[in-house]
Amino acid sequence: MFSEVKKCLGLAVPLAAAQLAQSATGFVDTVMMGWLGSQTIASGALGVTIFSFCLLIITGIVSAVSPLAAQAYGAGNREKVGTIVRLGLWISLVLGIPITLLLYNGGALLLLLGQDPNAVALAEIFLRAIALGFIPALGFAVLKSFLSALLQPQLIIVTVVLGTLLNITANYVLMFGKLGFPALGLAGIGWGSTLSLWSMFVALIYICNQPRFAVYGIFRPLYKKAFPLEHRRIIDEIFQVGLPIGGLIAVEAGLFTVVTFIIGQLGTNALAAHQIALQTISISFQLALGISLATTVRVGQLVGQNDLLATRLAGYVGIAIAALSMGVVGITLWLVPKSIISLYIDISDPNNADVVVLAVKLLGVAAIFQIVDGVQVTAGGALRGLKDTKVPMLIGIFAYWCVGLFIGYTFGISSGYGAIGLWWGLAIGLAIAAIIMTWRFSKKTTNHG
């Protein structure tokens, strides 16, 4: 057991650190939006939400590269690892082009969703700048999955940390017009993020072209004369595994997105408080997601080695580490909410008083559901390692929408508790998902799948 804990932590710590650093793009963007005022952070929230929602879904689909490559690596099939990653890159390009166009014209979508025209006008400025970073973000996700499957997460974290530092610098320079550049305001934040995403993708291309990784041939042409049947099978497998992953992410992220749009109709203060709390738990969620990714790789490798007992242990170890880590996060949110809020806005400014009060309450709710959030995402990661993705998507639909959104809407809108009631619905939905997914992993590994 201790050996598995060590192996899981050896992969989880750098992957979680990489996820935290990568999520810093959204965090940095949101913090810097706050420097431009409450109206900007509320409007920018709409842009960040729609971009993140699309990125999470499509990244979820191409993240099927991780368990598939991990199983092929565990089985010692180098050629298949390379083919999986090559096809994953092409799929990311094919899916990325239409989403980029959608994001570039995202203002029309936001208007259809009933958002305030003034807020939409600002959000569209941000979206048109960051849309061009969508395709490299997908390519980065594929190459990150490749390096993770080969147990090389340290290279990922170095790339992401440097990319984040570039993002902060570019945001500042382009927002305020430093070094001879014009002051672009909210658009500057979007362009800074696009530059960062391209830089990280190019860096991983360079790394994956080094001799020890070049032997996998991930940048070789897909085929010469005819499209091989094996490639078609792998594409089918990527979508069979990846679509339900993307679906599950869409179900969960969609819940938060819908809640954001509902709260957007409650006023600017409610939306600003919601965005502060949401961005904060988005960062803590990256910690759990990193552990989940490590669990997917460990489970996938052990499945490739046909070791059911070790597979079961790897899943439970990952879930336990996530629960403990997120418990610490929950305590932090509970003890120092105002210190966290002060990262986004000036809490001493009387104009922000209502936002601060509501944000403190939302962080209190978030503190309570951190553990179940960590358990449900890591249990989902363990199931992905088994290539079990369809049923978890159905579990998510039931837990998040049939239970979570129903309870949240009942408390928040029908009973008049506003954003607080909506967030309690989120908490209950996550708890239901955690229980059912953990039970399913136990059942799958006890009954030999």
Question: Which key features would you list for this structure?
Answer:
84% helix; 17 helices; 449 residues; mainly alpha; single chain
The share of residues in extended strands comes to: under 5%
Number of helices: 17
The quaternary state of the protein chains shown equals single chain
As a whole number of angstroms, the C-alpha radius of gyration is 21 Å
Distance between the termini: 22 Å
**What shape does the CA trace take?**
globular
Integer tally of domains: 1
The largest β sheet comes out as: none
Structure description:
With 449 residues, this protein is an all-alpha fold. Helices cover 84% and strands 0% of the residues. It has one domain. The chain has helices at residues 2-35, 38-62, 65-74, 78-104, 106-112, 117-130, 134-149, 153-176, 186-208, 211-214, 229-264, 268-304, 308-335, 337-341, 353-385, 390-414, 418-446. Helix 2 packs antiparallel against helix 4. The longest helix is centred in the middle third of the chain and has 37 residues, at 268-304. The protein starts with a helix and ends with a helix.
